Amino acid sequence: SRGPSTAMIFMELSNGRVNKLDPATLWWAILGVTDQYMNDEMDESFYEKVVETLMDEAIALSSKTSTELGSSKITQVVEFRFFLLDHWNLYNSMYYSNYVSSQLEIWKDRTSNKLQTLLAKMGIPLGQAEQKYLHMKTKMKITLEDKLLSSEELRDEFNLQKIQMSTFRKERKNGTHISATQCTEICNAMLCLPPAEEEQWTDAFQRASDAVWMSANREQGWDDLLSQKGSNNVVQGAIRLQQAVTHKAFEICQNKDMQKQTVGSFTCSRFVAGRDNQILLHPAALSKLALTVLDLDRKKYEDRKKASGGAKSVSLTHSRWVLGVENEEDTSCLVVGVHASSDLGYKENNRFGRLFKDAVENGVPDCVVESCVQGFSSNVLRITSGKFETFIDWLNHNLAPISN
Asked: 199-236: per-residue pLDDT in tens?
């Protein structure tokens, strides 16, 4: 995993050197840590330790007077691993959850019968699950909590042993709350939304940065942002991104376009960005897609390991992925490489990043390679359109010496 979140370091400096930790700085630290964990850049055991530290800071802040703290209280909570549940409906929030879709292997059966079976066994009618969660009957919400938390047999049957995660919320005096996980999903999606005419990707970055600031300092501004109508609605933008990522991940794992192949110690797949998934041409969106594919593919490894009685010798070959998306407009191909750790949870130090950086600095024969300036790590780059196979051959040759 990577080093500590910059936001966490800033919080520790504020608290240790100037003894002036405020709620906004604590909230930013929480968002930074949440982002790392949700993007597989922090393993679960370390995340839980950081949560304890943040919880201690939140308790210390809550002892201050209301004028010092403002109108909200930061609390540690446990949430289901569903996608934007507060802003969507239960059915879609579960269907488009990386965790649920991988554990239920929804990608194998797009009719989602297994999800419907789970809801039926919990006693939640489909009509209730398909209406906005905000308007779902309180009795059904209690049933959801009770069944998934109290029935170990149900969790085991559907492979949902880790259906919950520790996180934080800002509890507000008006009875509403801001979830750290959902705030992170929305702000990250804002980075990927297509820019308007004459805009650069840096404009999207600035809007996302402003949104993070508002969630900490001006909650009414955050509410206004979430309530915008039409194409400017950031919640719908996050949902569209998640849908595009999930549908394409399902197609890749199903090998629908017959582009998936195993090369040496990794699996690769290339696709052309169609009209419905132009958003995947953004480096952050392609990275999100790669992590989703990793989640779906990881379940197969878990099943093989379970069938072998937990043998350590079970291969992790298929937990390394390289994805390429062709942009027909500018004749380029965006490429990302990711792989899981041996502990199955999260990315280890990504060796693809080192090789991708070497490709940019020293070149690849018969292939133009450029640093992806829009990306946020070295494991995303841009190559000449039509040269994906050439790059894969180079990558396979150079990865072999360090693959063990």
From this structure: 776 788 889 999 999 999 998 999 999 999 887 899 99
Q: List, for residues 299-340, the tens digit of each pLDDT value.
A: 766 666 666 665 555 554 447 899 999 988 888 999 999 876
Q: What span, in angstroms and rounded, lies between the C-alpha atoms of 50 and 58?
A: 12
Nearest to 77 by CA among 65, 86, 69: 86
- Is the backbone of residue 70 left (phi > 0), alpha (psi -120 to 50) or beta? left
d(CA 336, CA 12): 33
Burial class of residue 401 in the structure, from the number of CB atoms within 10 Å of its CB (0-12 exposed, 13-18 middle, 19+ buried) = exposed
**Type of residue found at 45:** S
Angstrom distance (rounded) from CA 171 to CA 177? 5
Taking Cα atoms as reference points, which of 375, 373, 374, 372 lies closest to residue 383? 372
Secondary structure letter of residue 162 according to DSSP: T
Q: What is the largest CA-CA distance in the chain?
A: 66
CB of 122 closer than 8 Å to CB of 182: no
**Which of 273, 94, 87, 285 minimizes the C-alpha distance to 190?**
285
Extended strands (E) in 213-288: 261-263, 266-272
Q: What angle do CA 92, 98, 104 make, to 5 degrees?
A: 80
Instruction: Output the CA torsion 304→106→289→341 (10° steps).
Output: -20
Are the CB atoms for 84 and 185 separated by under 8 Å?
yes
* End-to-end alpha carbon distance in the chain: 18
Tokens of 37: 């964990």
Pick from 238, 346, 358, 399: which is nearest to 1 by CA? Answer: 346
Cα dist from 18 to 10, 11, 32, 52, whole Å: 11, 10, 21, 22
pLDDT exceeds 70 at position 349: no
Least confident of 51-60, 62-71, 234-243, 329-338: 62-71
Is residue 35 within 8 Å of 184, Cβ to Cβ? yes
- CA-based nearest residue to 58, from 91, 35, 29: 29
Which residues does 365 contact at the CB level (< 8 Å), separation at least 6?
Answer: 390, 394
Q: Is 98 exposed, middle or buried (0-12, 13-18, 19+ CB in 10 A)?
A: buried
